[in-house]
Amino acid sequence: MSQLHPIEASTLHARRERVFLVLAGLFLGSMTMLNILGVSRFIDLSFEIFGMRIPMALAVGVLPYPITFLCTDFISEIYGKQRANSVVWVGLMLNLWVVLFLWLGGSLPPEPELDLSTGLPPVDAYDFAFYRIRMLTMGAVVASMIAYMAAQFCDVYLFHFWKRLTKGRHLWLRNNGSTLASQFVDTVAVITITHFYAHALPIDANAPVWPQLWVFIGSGYVFKMVVALLDTVPFYIGVRVLRQYLEIDHDDAASESIAAS
What we know:
The two termini are 35 Å apart. The strands form two sheets. Strands 1-4 form a two-stranded antiparallel ribbon. It has a two-stranded antiparallel ribbon with strand order 2-3. The chain is built from eight helices and four strands. It is globular and about 60 Å long. Strand 2 (47-49) and strand 3 (52-54) form a beta hairpin. By secondary structure, the protein is mainly alpha-helical. It has one domain. The relative contact order is 0.13.
């Protein structure tokens, strides 16, 4: 007790707050990273089934995205809906903070010589990488924020909807059901808005648009779906371990969460 800060009510209270800090930090760090990386590179994970080539073009920014839903599910299960929603709002403000400094960094002197056709410095210029990332991030920020808010609040809402409906049982249902639905919302929103508003996708202008967009949507969603299904067992184990470590009674936590919903 002598090592506790005066704001910490007890050792258990301190432990619970530190676990929350880790989960929230992992969520916010992943959100920041994926928005900076964004559509800066697409990975070709195409494969063949029975001689048929299945295209799969995956934006590198999608890679850390599934972990954000796992974190909000942990926070929803252990700490409740209000804390999960609070983390989502902080994530929005953090992304706006990143955009502010991307804008500021490109506005301060010296002013680079920009290629009129690309709006970027020459490829061999020292600050080319910054302005390339800045252009992609600033161009896609509206898509990212709309998709982010819609998907994360959808995830939190559906998680607690299923929890209330099943009276706190069937953890696998609320984990997978909320994540799969919200990630579909996110994928469709971010791809369509990024293309039609920001024009930041590598689209072939000579080919029909929607078949290309569906490749991006399908690729991103399949990746997120597979990861969401694979994290079911780690989620079960993680919830069990955290409930024991944080001394949370399952029945009391379920009743409180259902009442709060």
